[in-house]
What we know:
Distance between the termini: 57 Å
Shape: globular
Order of helices and strands: HHEHHEHEHEHEHEHEHEEHHEEE
Number of helices: 12
Amino acid sequence: MIRRSFLTLTLLGAAVATAAGLAFTGPSQAEDKFIVVQSTTSTQNSGLYDHLLPIFSKTSGIEVRVVAVGTGQAIKNAQNCDGDVLLVHAKAAEEKFVAAGYGVSRSDVMYNDFVIVGPATDPAGISGGKDVTAALAQIKAKNAPFASRGDDSGTNKKEIALWKAAGIDPTADSGGWYRETGSGMGATLNASVGMGAYTMSDRATWIAFGNKGGFEIAVEGDERLFNQYGVILVNPEKCSNVKAGLGQTFIDWILSDEGQSAIADYKRDGKQLFFPNAKMS
């Protein structure tokens, strides 16, 4: 009875619209005006999307549904055609995604940086340093606890690259001083505070993080801690379900002057969390 009533109302709506000379928009069309953005936990945990998306939706009428996971998982999800747009922060992996035909093209969106945070007692003696590989080597030398996300996220990829640059394989000590959480940035920061362990965080999530528990930034300012974000439309030729038009509308907006200004305007505690650089790509 419910299905028949719904069908009757739908057909009646179509008949009325036709009689009035109007195009009838069925429920599915109205409900479909949304996109799925596969993205990182850092953009979500920092509150950036809570700031950006209402502005975009008001301008475009398009709802954005964010799946916030580590960059590696976000890329896998997009390769599995689960999403319309990819917004992550691991440039080499993003370029590989496009080169394999899964993405149409890649554009820089914004940047910030990574920081090493740890307890104010600073058991490794690295506080105030600007050489990140020297700091990591000192953490290893002191066997000071370090919490890694261990989740193939953009942050985790960068962290592993920095350990490699320091000539260290920390996974050889996994479960000892090196502890892999397999979690997002917020959860890893919570674990880090709970264990009294150093960790690497993107600055935006660190600023927005409310449970600092006496932790402080120990190392910052090394150019190797640069953190670039990029945006990619998932290729509709690979994934026929991709809403290419709506997805491109979002990308065009976030790269536009309005979108870039909205990114720059987002602050926590008076601090700017992301710095737009679309025109530098």
